Each structure stands twice: as C-alpha cells, then as structure tokens.
Amino acid sequence: MCEQVTRRHFLNAAGATAAAASLSQVAQGQGGAGASSGADRVVGLACSPREGKTTATAVGAALEAARGVSDRVETELIDCGGLEFSGWSGGATPAAGKEVLDDFTAEVLPVLKGPGVGGLIIGSPVYFRSMSSLCKALLERLAVLRKPSLLLADKAVGALAVGGYRNGGQELVIEQITTAMLCHEVLVVGGKPRAHQGATLWNAYKDDITKDEFGMDTARKLGVRVAEVALGLAGG
After folding, report:
1. CA nearest neighbour of 116 among 40, 209, 2
2. pLDDT tier for residue 88 given thresholds of 50, 70 and 90
3. What is the mean pLDDT of residues 127-143?
4. 108 and 46 in contact (C-beta within 8 Å)?
5. Residue 92, pLDDT score
6. pLDDT greater at residue 23 or residue 133
7. Domains in the chain and their CATH numbers?
8. DSSP 3-state of 36
9. Which of 67, 111, 140, 174 has the fewest CB atoms within 10 Å, i.e. is most exposed?
10. Cβ proximity of 56 and 127 under 8 Å
11. 3-class SS at 196?
C-alpha cells in the first residue's frame, strides 16, 4: 500500500529541502553577509482608507497570533490608510524605468522586497460587496514584483475582510484578493476551522472590532495558519 502523502508532510519535506540548501550555501560561502536564515517574516497589509480603524486592528490581531506560533516569527503591519498611492494607469505593469514615485514605492515596496518575507496577510473593508479601491490599487501595484522574477512566488498568503453586516460580502472580497494574488504563484491559505477561506469580521460595534468575538477569532486563526505555512516552507 502506498504511503499517504498529506499537505503537512509535503510542507515539512519542502521546508527541510530548503533548509538543507540554505545550510549548504552557507557552508560554501554563498550565503552572503545579508543572507536570511529563513522566510520567517509575516507582513500584514491593511487596505482601508481609514487609518488605524477596524481593518488595521483585525490585521494586527492576525499578526499577533502569527507571532505566537514561534519565536522565529517576526511581523510587520503596513497600514495603507496612512499612505497615498494609486493603481496603474494605461497598463497592468509599469514600463521599464517608469516606476511611479509615491508612498507605495517608498513605504510598501522596500518591505516586500526585504529579506525573509515568508507570508502576507492582506485585509480590506467591504464596499458594495467588493474590495476597497485602495486594496485594488495595492494589488495592481504589486505587479512590479512579478518581473523580472516572481518575488512573491511560494509565499503563504491569507486574506481578511471587514464588512458592515455579518454576511456583507466578506467572502467575496477574500476571493477577489486571493484570485489576484494567484498571479504571483503564491500559496493561498485559509485559517483554522471556522476560518477556512480567510478571516471574516463584522463591524457592528461602532468601530470597536474587538467586540466581534467570532470575527476576531477568525483573524487570529488566519494569522496562525499563515505563520505555520511560512515556517514549514522555511524549514521550521
């Protein structure tokens, strides 16, 4: 009888292979002074135009849960509500040497291009059953990470959505975000049970999203799962 191969076995094997390759490079002096020991950083992107509000709080809770998985996990929150940038105009990707100079290139891009990024958690509010225009702009601008190489390929990516109603389109927004990220050949992951597709939160308490116990639980479970997959791929 053939041994059953589960996803967890696959991730552990892939992580072990990556770790062995990394150790081999270090032993041969190929790692370089700035080489990362593993992709152990989880970056949260809160794409609400309202800085510091419900979406940022929810993404922050997911990142806190991610840090609890292992002391190897580092996190960083980028609250796009405090930034100014727009999507592409006239094309899906920028022409060579024509990168727009704005808060995306100054604040977001350096973080995502930095060493050790193994996972992303992208959050958006729900506007008319769709993602925010800021989230759409972010996803368009991430196209710069697809050429000349897929810098986000094989990274763990989870999505989070905050709606004005319990069933206010959160799962539609999660699907929109993850569908766009598949263009980067990422590994889309959901959360633990009750958050299999991603984190769904309900802003029913005058912007105190922490009172949505069910929603906050899904955010934390998403953070845990993204961290687990990122660590598995990094050999953790």
Report:
1. 40
2. confident
3. 96
4. no
5. 52
6. 133
7. 38-231 (3.40.50.360)
8. coil
9. 111
10. no
11. coil
Residues 212-227: tens digit of each pLDDT: 999 999 999 999 999 9
Average pLDDT on 7-29 reads 37
Q: What secondary structure, in 3-state letters, does 49-102 show?
A: CCCCCHHHHHHHHHHHHHHCCCCCCEEEEEEHHHCCCCCCCCCCCCCCCCCCCC
Smallest CA-to-CA distance from 132 within 51, 26, 37 is with 51
Taking the C-alpha atoms of residue 75 and residue 61, their distance in angstroms, rounded to an integer, is 11
The three-class DSSP label of residue 11 is helix
Cα four-point dihedral sign 136, 142, 147, 150: negative
In tens, the pLDDT along 21-44 reads 433 332 333 333 333 346 799 999
Q: Is the dihedral of CA 180, 175, 77, 150 positive or negative?
A: negative
Q: How far apart are CA 165 and CA 159, in angstroms?
A: 18
Position 169 pLDDT exceeds 80: yes
Distance CA 181, CA 157 (A): 8
CA distance 144 to 91: 12
Tokens of 53: 């509000």
Amino acid at 140: E
CA-to-CA distance for 20 and 195, rounded, in angstroms? Answer: 33
**170-176 average pLDDT score:** 98
Residue 177's nearest CA partner among 29, 59, 63 is: 59
SS3 content of the chain, % helix, strand, coil (to 5): 45, 15, 40
